[in-house]
């Protein structure tokens, strides 16, 4: 059985008289250790999928099997536990705490999980050995995103969910961040899911799930993912 399996997941929002279908019977599988890209235009329903997979929201219908358990049936308390221990999050605008240094931001992971990695070691691994004592405002966008990735990885998540992680970065910096995510996936075996509207990123993934208009349009498996350095856009 697949490590992650979404089975006919739908999410509806009631807006007055109208019912908005943000996800309409979405199904896909993800294997452990895969690098997955969820691709689709703005409004397609990507963030909704990620929120449901990350335990930030419940689906209206469907099953979300993670490691053999249907998280759609979790109580809010179980879901909190899942979010805290099993999932790492990386967002477009980094979401660092501005009055904490890079190191302190990563140390927050230890307050959430008792199996957290040492903050300095993780910052070292993402290439920020010399910037640990800096505050977010003293770091470039790419460096801030590295801190955010380090913070997510410090929890040793089973699953790393990234919502447009390069959306606020220039081309070269974006590529460096994607390389870090691809290397992390390969070296630590963490399952990584990146949502993006950028089609050019797709060749780096083991699996590409295309979403359009709240539904899965195609699923493409790639036996030979390209190294990020060889991708141009
Ligand atoms: N809390 C909500 N209440 C009402 N409608 C919502 C809510 N969240 C999302 N939607 C609607 O659901 C649809 C899918 O939104 P979603 O954010 O998942 O798309 P997306 O693919 O992530 O887009 P983007 O790339 O612009 O973030 C949109 O029509 C959106 O307006």
From TrEMBL:
GO terms for biological process: amino acid transport. InterPro entries: AAA+_ATPase, ABC_transporter-like_ATP-bd, ABC_transporter-like_CS, MacB-like_ATP-bd, P-loop_NTPase. Residues 4-232 form the ABC transporter domain. GO terms for molecular function: ATP binding; ATP hydrolysis activity; transmembrane transporter activity. Keywords: Amino-acid transport, ATP-binding, Nucleotide-binding, Transport. GO terms for cellular component: membrane protein complex. Belongs to the ABC transporter superfamily. This is ABC transporter ATP-binding protein.
């Amino acid at each position: 059985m697949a490590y992650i399996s979404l089975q006919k997941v739908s999410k509806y929002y009631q807006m007055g008289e109208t019912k908005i279908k943000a996800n309409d019977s979405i199904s896909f599988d993800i294997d452990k250790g895969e690098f997955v890209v969820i691709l689709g235009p703005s409004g397609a329903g990507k963030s909704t999928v990620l929120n449901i997979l990350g335990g930030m929201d419940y689906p209206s219908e469907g099953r979300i099997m993670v490691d053999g358990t249907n998280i759609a049936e979790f109580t809010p308390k179980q879901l909190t536990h899942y979010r805290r221990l099993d999932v790492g999050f990386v967002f477009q605008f980094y979401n660092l705490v501005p009055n904490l240094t890079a190191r302190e931001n990563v140390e927050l992971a230890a307050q959430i999980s008792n199996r957290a990695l040492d903050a300095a070691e993780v910052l070292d691994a993402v290439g920020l050995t010399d910037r640990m004592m800096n505050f977010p405002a003293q770091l470039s966008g790419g460096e801030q995103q590295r801190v955010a990735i380090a913070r997510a990885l410090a929890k040793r998540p089973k699953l790393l969910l990234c919502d447009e992680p390069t959306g606020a970065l220039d081309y070269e910096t974006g590529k460096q961040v994607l390389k870090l995510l691809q290397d992390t996936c390969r070296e630590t075996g963490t399952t990584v899911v990146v949502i993006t509207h950028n089609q050019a990123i797709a060749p780096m993934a083991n699996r590409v799930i295309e979403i359009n208009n709240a539904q899965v349009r195609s699923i493409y498996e790639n036996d030979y993912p390209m190294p990020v350095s060889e991708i141009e856009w």
